[in-house]
Amino acid sequence: MTAAALRALHVPGKPLLLPNVWDADSARLVEEAGFPVVATSSHAVAAVLGYGDGERAPVDEMFAAAARIARAVSVPVTVDAESGYGLPAAELVERLLEAGAVGCNLEDTDHARGALRPIAEQAEWLASVREAAGDALVLNARVDLFLGGRGAEVLPEAIERAKAYLAAGADCVYPILLRSADVLGEFVRAVSPAAVNGNRIPGVDVASLGVARVSLGAGLWRETREWLARRLGEL
């Protein structure tokens, strides 16, 4: 599947569900279950490589893991590339394509500084990635304002960031960990008809809010790890 075909799966109200994976074996299971796309979780991939989240894993190891995942499946792969690992846009795109990815996540947290990048700076960076990638990558731009449990109080800035990222060439915007159905609905309406990536909200049909993509993040990896820890305790 090409990036164009992946873009076509982003339909507001009929979201693409992405059970994020951490290695080749979990990717195969996702494909065997019938999902049309495999997405990686940077948190989970870094963890199984022995590192913490937030670009603590060596970039070469992260891309090697992505390449193993892409080789293991026949469906398209979208890679969580964190903040781009400090790579120039052209090199980042080249390495994603070499790994076999047709999509990527890029977040607006600058891990070196431990803070969100200014809106204009992040938009300029995303525009550089889009220019380097052309139409070869589906670009999912993460908006990190809601991390830490924040909600409606940061919605105006979140919308401003999302609109700037879309104008820079992002295909989809991702207000990660936005847990309020009301606030997510407002966000979706504010950037409509653009595609929005949401997370699961317990007890809420997020499809009815108009999202076009739903990510599970590191959720399945955490559940698997918790099961293994219990089983080891029983043994």
From TrEMBL:
Q: Looking at the keywords, is Cytoplasm present?
A: no
Q: Which UniProt keywords apply?
A: Lyase
Gene Ontology molecular function: any one = lyase activity
Keyword check for Magnesium, yes or no. Answer: no
SUPFAM superfamilies, alphabetized:
Phosphoenolpyruvate/pyruvate domain (SSF51621)
Known InterPro entries for this protein?
Answer: ICL/PEPM, Pyrv/PenolPyrv_kinase-like_dom, Pyrv_kinase-like_dom_sf
Q: What is this protein called?
A: Isocitrate lyase/phosphoenolpyruvate mutase family protein
Which species?
Amycolatopsis dongchuanensis
